[in-house]
Amino acid sequence: MSSRGEAAERPGRWDVDDVQTWGPDKHQLGATIPCAGNSEEVETGGWRSQLPVIDQAKCSGCMLCYFYCPDASIIIADGKAVGIDMKHCKGCGICAKECPDRAIVMTTEEKD
Questions:
Q1: CA-CA distance, 70 to 84, in Å (whole number)?
Q2: Positions in the chain short of pLDDT 50
Q3: Which fold does the domain 45-108 belong to in CATH?
């Protein structure tokens, strides 16, 4: 068993077998998550109700949507937003809120 913070058997994972015994004094500041999921492994966009839609003609390439997106769901090509990774977008609307050109609007997503 490795000590907390060192690589366990699988790279990128911590040994958290004894996490219930850590107590608040052993948790590091900064919201350290010892066993975080990986968005490549887990699709998280299935529960959204709002859907961002990009008007590529309005996009100036400021990249604010890309930098502010908490899910890294903005697809960039040639320096502009060209799409949304729907497997991971949660529909929070931060991209639309931060877009100074109003190139992204939130719409209600229709579920099948």
A1: 13
A2: 1-10
A3: Alpha-Beta Plaits (3.30.70)
